[in-house]
Amino acid sequence: MADVVTPRTLRVLSLGAGVQSSTLLLLSLHGMLPRLDAAIFADTGWEPRAVYEHLAWLADVSERGGIPVYRVTKGNIRADALRSRVRGHKGDGHRWVAMAFFVDPRNKTGQHGMIRPQCTLEYKLQPIRKLVRKLAGLEKGERVGDKVLVEQWIGISADETHRLRMSRDYWIKFRFPLVFDLKPAWRRMDCLKWLRETYAERRFPRSACIGCPFRSNAEWRQLRDESPAEWQDAVGFDAAVRKSGGRRGDVYVHASLKPLGEAPIDDVDPRQGSLFSCGVCAT
């Protein structure tokens, strides 16, 4: 009778360096959740300075606690988006970067929409998956078979269950400890409460690209009022990317279809999304 092969289990965290994923990493270090083997931060190259500073602190605390933090990247999403404004441009090998821009198609109906984003997939999920294969000991192109089972933690809280999803890979199981492992399940406010009680001296930022269109007006105001240099960076990016991907109409980072510097961010605008609408970026 053949021996039963038990796949090796690897437990990794998708670390966005925001509130929820930071909470998961620290709960693991405190023994309140199972021990992680690694945490992986996918760097788009365009995070706010506060996020990079917080990531450095997290990495130090985590590695001293025995959990290594890895950083992976596909490149700088801002630079890539500006290089690929014209669809099909092959001069430098960069194809169009599909960020979640608002579109003015200048069609007969006058309606506008939003480009379906691929940036989370290309700049977050795929680089993380590539490193997960490496950590699992898999060679390039090697079939997984029954060699390894990966438990990939994602920092989605109980107030964001609409974001739950299954892995496309049979050998990777997404796990949402804030929703299913903690009793009762933790909401974002529960994470913040625990962080404030445990790390009273620290501020835990949200994680998202500086010019991400998935910002509510309140989030744009916060960027403008608290990080003026990064606000000007976002304004400049919005102006530079106006003609994107060879589309017939212009693209904008704000739903008003106005340049960001002129957009009505002091108003309530239900068309604006928020950082929590875009998958894993804001965890």
List the defining traits of the structure above.
single chain; 283 residues; alpha/beta; Rossmann fold; 5-stranded parallel beta sheet; disordered N terminus
What do you see in this structure?
The protein is α/β, with parallel strands linked by helices and 283 residues long. The chain has a single domain, classed as 3-Layer(aba) Sandwich (Rossmann fold). Helix content is 31%, strand content 12%. The chain has eight helices and eight strands, in the order βαβαβαββαββααααβ. The chain has helices at 19-29, 49-64, 77-83, 119-135, 177-180, 188-198, 217-226, 228-240; strands at 8-14, 38-42, 69-72, 102-104, 113-114, 148-153, 172-175, 250-252. The strands form two sheets. The chain has a five-stranded parallel beta sheet. A three-stranded antiparallel beta sheet has the order 5-4-8, with no helix packed on it. The radius of gyration is 20 Å and the shape is globular. The model is unreliable at 1-5, 87-91 and 107-111 (pLDDT under 50).
